Structures are given as structure tokens and as C-alpha cells.
Amino acid sequence: MVRLILLGPPGAGKGTQAQKLAAELKVPHISTGVILRQAAEKKTVLGKRAKAIMDAGQLVSDDIMLGIIRDRLQAKDCEKGYILDGFPRTIPQAEALDQLLSQKTEPPVVIANLSLDEQELRRRIAGRRSEAARSDDAEETVLSRFQVYQEKTRPLLVYYGGRVRPIDGKGSVPEVFQQLTELLKVAAVRSPEAAS
After folding, report:
1. What confidence tens digit (pLDDT) does each residue in 40-74 have?
2. Which residues are catalytic?
3. Hey, which of 5, 12, 123, 174 would disulfide with 114, CB 3.0 to 4.6 Å?
4. What is the pTM of this model?
């Protein structure tokens, strides 16, 4: 069973790696943006609340987000594991997720941080913009997201401490993928399931 949380700044390739790992391991890639839209489309109670907040241009609160994550992790396709991408984003979310996961008798969560510095982020933005014009790749937008990451999400590295496994996000997609698969192999060997 694989339970992976992918951390890292915008542009580090979390979504790309999560998709590749999900396909390889046959577990769902749970992206908060996607599940928020799905919950809204399904018109669940939490989905309706989230949609009203998003339509107003506000951030979805931690309690709604956690409720949607809780519902998603209980889905049948998560029985063999999952990859969380984009959650948690803040320490209160991490604390709530820890509490939720502690109620389950499953292997420990692997937490991987794809590290990427601002210089490399700028280089990637320049590369993307030369390939295709993407509104979400405007340098100001991505650097603003990077700043929000530094203020709100980077403190998770301190919160999780020694549980975080560093991954060099500057490598190529195959190189980063190799690092992540090696990490997951080591974690699988150390898990209580492997010992039983």
C-alpha cells in the first residue's frame, strides 16, 4: 500500500510526478483542485459549500477542505493507497490530516518534498513561456505563488521534520521519478505490512 504526500513549491513538478506515480502504482492521484471541482459537480453538501466559496473568489476553509479530503480517502479506489498533491498546504491542515490518518490502521504516510529554488523556478518559467503562452505561467503569477508557498506551505517542512524525505526537484522528469520510486521502495520494505 502506498500513501504519499507530495510537497514542494509551484513549478517543482508535483502534478507531473503524481500522475506518473499514480499510473505506475495504480493508485489515485488526489489533487485538491480536482476534488474540489468534482465535489462541486456532484453537489455533495461540502461540494455545494465549497462551490459557493470558490464562486465568491475566496479560499476554501480548512474544515471544508478536510471534510472533502476525508470523503475522498474513504472511496474504494483508495484501498490500495493514494498520492496527495496540494494537501496539506498549511500547518492546521497538516495537524487535521495527521489526526484523520491516525484513526486508520494503515502503513505510515511517506512525505516527499520536491525542492526547487527561485532561480530554477525562473528558468523553468522562461522555458515554458518560450514553448507556449500559458496565462498561469506569467512570471509575476508564478513568483507570487512561490511567495505564498514560502509563507504558508514551507513551514510544513518544519512541522513534519524528520518525516520529510528530500527529493531534488531540479532534475529531469525521469530523474525525479526515479528518486520517488526508490523512496517508495525503501518505505515499502520498512512498512509494518512488509514485516508481517
Report:
1. 888 888 888 888 877 776 667 888 888 889 888 98
2. 14, 89, 128, 134, 145
3. 12
4. 0.80
